[in-house]
Design brief:
Radius of gyration: 20 Å
Number of domains: 1
Order of helices and strands: HHHEHEHEHHEHEHHHH
Helix content: 25-40%
Number of helices: 12
Shape: globular
Number of strands: 5
Bound molecules: 2-acetamido-2-deoxy-beta-D-glucopyranose
Largest sheet: 5 strands, mixed
Strand order of the largest sheet: 2-1-3-5-4
Strand content: 5-15%
Amino acid sequence: MRVPSRFTTVTFVISMWLLIRMKLHPNRVQLSSQTNPSLLSMAPQLTTTYVTVSQDLPTITSSAEVTQETQIDGDGKHLSDLAGTVDGVIVMAKLQKEDTNWVGEHLPEWKNAIYTVDNTSAPLYTSVNKGKESMVYLTYIIDNYFTLPETLVFLHSHRDGYPTGWHTDAPEYDNVNSVRMLKLDFVQRSGYVNLRCIWIPGCPDEIQPYREQYEEHREPEHATRDAWRYIFNNTDIPSTIGVACCSQFAVSRDQVRARPLEDYQRYRQWLLDTELSDEVSGRVFEYFWHIIFGKESVQ
Ligand SMILES: *[C@@H]1O[C@H](CO)[C@@H](O)[C@H](O)[C@H]1NC(C)=O
Ligand SMILES: *[C@@H]1O[C@H](CO)[C@@H](O)[C@H](O)[C@H]1NC(C)=O
């Protein structure tokens, strides 16, 4: 029997989407949901006061380990000669057990700020592990607001491979390739650039705050209206928010500073106070970042 090709295409796209949602979503963020138990007991009071704990950016140490024989970039330059040549920083959240040495080894031209969320003895850490990577992203911006480099790249901690790196759509799902391929002048012109191009999941209408049908798996969507009022301090809540998923993006210093420091402090306060699970509060930010950095709700 002949099947209309449009039907086949639609079925394929829907199947892929379902597959990705059901099978892969739980793996999308490496940080596990380790909410501090003492914080849980405090949650109803909603009066957490955050004391900043981060320190100056660590100096790049790993570039010294780069051997000149093996590490040569596309232009034939030795990576060790590139150390610190980009006026930019890679901001990352990691668990203690995760190996992020690849950042300094393969992207030595960037500064990096890698926060360990579950070890307060680490060089950079957050006092609370909440809201997945968003706590780290906001903490970096808040603590470095007046000394930001020109470009900020927010990345996840695992480097590459499938399926763990599925949300990185550079060749080999490799974040090193993703950063290397980034056009820095475009980041400066655009202000915000999502590192993912593939539409699914997220586009074109993942979050619909006024959707009539209640679906249990759409908790971040249900949380969006309240969160919007607090985060953006207005009631102009869009009917649709759509952006390629996964919270890996680059922004310019100017775009970050288009908002006052107090805005970012307020966002983090929401994260500290919310009783939503990490999975949900992290996902709320996942669909807010592009709006925070000046883009339309549907990107
Ligand atoms: C926490 O970080 C410190 C400093 O990097 C390290 O010495 C210590 O072993 C880490 N703790 C755990 C439990 O891994
Ligand atoms: C929120 O918006 C109101 C009304 O526009 C304004 O008066 C208030 O200062 C804003 N609050 C913050 C924290 O920006």
